[in-house]
Amino acid sequence: MKKLLFELFYISSIQCYSQIELSEITVYKDTIISSKVKIVDFGKYKGFVFPKEYGLVRFSHPKEKRECFDIDTILVRKIEEELTRQYYSAQKYFMEQRYNEIYEYERKYPGSYILKDLKKEEKQYWKSFEKNKDNMEKYLEDSDRQYIGYISNKGEKIIQIQITPRHYNYDDNFMKKGFSPIWLTQEGSDIEIIHYHLFTNKITINEDY
User: Fold this and answer.
1) How confident is the model at residue 166 (pLDDT cuts 50, 70, 90)?
2) Which residue of 32, 163, 197, 203 sits 20 to 30 Å from the alpha carbon of 77, by its own alpha carbon?
3) pTM of the model
């Protein structure tokens, strides 16, 4: 157990895809649903808004069943404003929580980590994180989005946003097929899931199912 955070437990919103089972990432090819996907052009990138019917596919796994709802393009534009404004702070909060979990584990099970090295690595991480802010903004500008609205187990309306960098060169028809093409299984993929909370306008990372 004496391994550092990023050797054993590097958790980012991108790498959490390793937890998704293959049965949950089947590409949906129903052209009826594909025809209902709305495309919003933001200039530098596009947004693909999926209808509530796609929820039967996106959340088809028995443990992930969700009631979905339609979202309009006006809401999507509002979401994009909040995503641009909150993305940096949401990423920071996400990693702060991960570090807190590591330190809490060490308190419960002393000796699991080499604290001196862990603290040194954390300090280096945050230094790099601050320098990476401009790259985060560029990442958003260089990535298309997919959206679907669903109701969480707590009864909260949430918009799930999948961010897909355009360097994959997927065309509109491909992006309309579904949230889960085969590239989600690739280790180290830079595809990311974000959550937008409809009632609070809050952006979060991989926390709200």
Assistant:
1) confident
2) 32
3) 0.79
